[in-house]
Amino acid sequence: MLSWIRPSARLSFFHSKDNKLLLTKKSGESGVKQQVALADVCRAATPAKCHLNPLLFNGHLQTAWTTVKFDDVPVYYKRRMFEADSSMYKGQFAVDFVVEPYETPKDNAEATDKARRYTLPSGLPERTSFLSEEEFQALPSDDTKPMLVLLHGLSGGSHEIYLRHVLAPLIADGNWEACVVNSRGCSQTKISTGVLYNARATWDVRQTVKWLRKAFPNRPLFGIGFSLGANILANYLGEEGDACQLKAAVLCASPWNLEVSSTNLQKTWLGLEVYSKTMGSSMKRLFEQHVEEVSKNPRIDVEAVRNTKYLHEFDRALQCATWGYPTEGAYYRDAASIDSMLAIRIPFFTVQAEDDPIASVDALPFQEMTQTPYGVMLTTSWGGHLGWFEIGGDRWFVKPVTNFLNTMAKEIDLGTPFIVEHPEKLPGHIANHFDLSKDPDTAPKPDFDPMRRKLAMKMVQ
Fold first, then answer.
1. Are residues 284 and 217 in the same domain?
2. The pTM is what?
3. 227 an active-site residue?
4. Is residue 448 part of a domain?
5. Beta bridge partners of 378
């Protein structure tokens, strides 16, 4: 009876068994520094039980509940518009910095962007206003607080409740700083070119991290991405490789293999007529908000975009036309992060639900996780897409995520290099099982590059 009242999801961990990533813990009173494996850190960060709301007893109900509008997690932001430094991806984007609660200045034209220079006519999201130039100039600091960079999901923004659920416990004691990188055109921002974002648009997060590194030279930087934002973040981490400025990252409900996730959505009535149609509609609304600018793009057929119904049709009409992909499948294969994760060279923790109807279990990197020491994947048998709702409305996934981030920031010596137990086993290295009965290994040695892309674009400046 109790198991029905408080049902528990199955927890599973996937990681390399024979090639650990060893982290160094900060020295205690004895002054002795101990090593701990990344997998052990992730396991310790995860509660032993995943008790979810029994009324939301499958992934569809958990996912549906995310659309219920309740707002009990107030997070306040001050916004800054950045002009892109990428020659390939010009335009502007918004970064929202988490700040202490404040009274929204309704009569301050600069704070509210009354002239709507950067903001859509409907105005800024709740609890968000613009930094004054004086406030922005005062932002840089030499403090050593950990700082979290967040990337939201498809057509979302800093206002998303799942994002605020993670932020709230981290900023509650004042020990963390944070900012959200809003994708082009999201979170009520105007675009200044005819191009929106895509699933591998890493330029803005790269520019933001560079700016943060310069403005806050002593802060350890961390990253977290949700859904499509997790896919973008994984691509960014892979592109940066050994040069990555983040100390660790979390990926939540990532679709990973975009083509598989898209194909699975199209296989069922619910997948096609509910999830794909809903996401397609949200992207069409975003498109219409910016149609004046996007329609100036000579590659875009506005009516073709308007005539789409499902997400894959929208991507075919807009993303393929914008970026030159022949099909949405080619776009999905090129923008997927399932190979990119093999190039990541910082510790990362990913949390997925096996009954997620959007980020399909078939698209998860089960095999890939066993080949890299840098990542650990936690899956739950139940949770939906960014759901994991418990009785009372809290989200269970917040616990392992925030526990991991706090452990990395407070207990791990981030100044000591991480140690790969067997570097010769890293992805890209070719195993050699030589013995006297075998021929010498004289075969060509291919160069496996998980970041090799079909679309040639200058990603790193």
1. no
2. 0.95
3. yes
4. no
5. 13, 351
